[in-house]
Predict the 3D structure of the following.
Amino acid sequence: MISARNLQIGYQKPLGDHLHLELNAGQFHVILGPNGSGKSTLFKTLIGLIRPMSGQVLVNQLDVHRLTAIARAKTFAYVPQSQQQVFPYTVGEMVLMGRTSHIKPFSVPSHSDIERSDEAMASLDILGLKDQEFTKLSGGQRQLTILARALAQDAQILVLDEPTASLDFGNEIRVLERIRHLADQGWTIILSTHNPDHALQLADTVTTVSHGTVKDHGVPHQILTSAHLSDLYQANVKVVSIGQTKTCIAAQLNRT
Amino acid sequence: MVEILGKTNQSQTALSGGLLAICLILLSVIASGIGQYPIDYADIIHALLHYFGIEEEPPDQTIRLVLSEVRLPRLLASVLVGAVLAAAGCVFQGMFRNPLVSPDILGVSTGAGLGAAAGILLSLSIISIQLMAFLGGLITVGAVYLVASSIRQHEPTLILVLAGIVIGSLAGACLSLVKILADPYDQLPAITFWLLGSFAAVDKIDLLGALPLCILALIPMVLLRWRINVLSLGDEEARALGVNPDKIRLFLIFAATLMTAAGVAIAGVIGWVGLVVPHIARLLVGPNFNRLLPIAMLIGANFLLVVDTIARTLTQTETPIGILTAFVGAPVFVWLLFHARRSWM
């Protein structure tokens, strides 16, 4: 579905070497890397928000940087990292904005748009928050609102940039459960994170990123070894199994 | 107040709009009776009914002249300028994602003032002065935007306001230069009085000159009302939601500047309306531009109508309106800041 060829990412100068990447439809893809590794840049380049330094990204055989804004919005529903909103739109209005690519430039949302955004809120159990102000919500509720907005967008691919970055442990679990549930329903999902557990526990494929290029790509259980992760994060970490789950822990972080 | 009124309800907006419209009509009738030549309200209504062909008997000639040549053009001008300054304020705040900007803080008003003062200095015609005001405003807002967007590593809200202050003072310095060059007996009083804002000299021709420009500038704001909401989320999100922000934003800033300049060209520099009125409107009906724009325009129209009536009746001589809007606007804004807490109303 998405294929990157000879891609070099960066803002003003290239961050790293040329990279190749293929992401298939109907799967849960995680892009994993430490802070400053260039994963956000890669991520935004893949969905056409940043121009590549060289090479190209194809989505459904089309160059992602030649798509119109509306065509791009119908392909990717993007959940950005931080949500610092200035104006106190209600949750309902925020979710309704997800319908913009289906609304003509000089028009306002129709009844079917409102129904679709209500459905999206209901599927994430936040319909009760509809009339609340977005700016007054907790971090977890905000993230679910933006997730509902992405669902209301009716795009082909759901793209999440560190969706749990500013959430506490409980909210993180709740948001991830929702995302896992969406993947089970057949959504194609691309999620970026710096937490290897997300990849180990949720993903169909993982792409590790360092120094602005792809380090490895494959099935999480195969490539996310203790050695690979220790190298990726430049820290001594260990992948352990607890029952069915695998998790990543700090190898020597113990009180003595 | 916010909690009691509720924000999202559609009928709430209709109610606010209806009340504000009735208020505007009542205030207009009251204001047209007040002045150096007081007119009885019965006579005003009589004159209006005659004008619309309902009443056969023509009104008193003096009353007719005072109303049609002096008071109504001035009254309509204050309503128009109040509405467009509020609309421009809403657009600037949304486009810059910044509740602290307004035509005056971004330097648009000062820039337009500079352009118009230069026009007066060169003894240009009224249409050329309007054009100069528009160019001055556009150049200033362009310069502010350029300076602010080239400094990226700081808080963008703060930088934009600071850039506005810097460019605004530069335009202010150029204005002082124009004043020094101006003829002290003829041009200078005109420039000074005009910089403080006044509807005293407004006639029918001014009004008819400014009206088409204001309507023209309002069209994109009404048509793009949903897209404006999306743009106020920021560039990256707008792009991800399917709106290409660059062109629409420039176009809307251009329209808001045109509006402001048309207002400045007939009434001079009137501060605070574009800053304070959008906040009050947001407090009433929330930030959705669909509802915000009409309500803000009605509030702005009511506000400037009242303030101008005070300006022409408070003392024997005319009080410049910019002084009064500052006296009202500054405390109201402080009150708003106290009640804003973290979210911007």
Notes: Residues 1-7 of chain B have pLDDT under 50 and may be disordered. Chain B is about 75% helix and 0% strand. The domain at 72-340 of chain B is CATH 1.10.3470.10 (ABC transporter involved in vitamin B12 uptake, BtuC). The interface with chain A takes residues 7-8, 94, 97-99, 223-227, 229-230, 232-233, 236-237, 239-244, 282, 286-288, 290, 342-345 of chain B (CB under 8 Å).
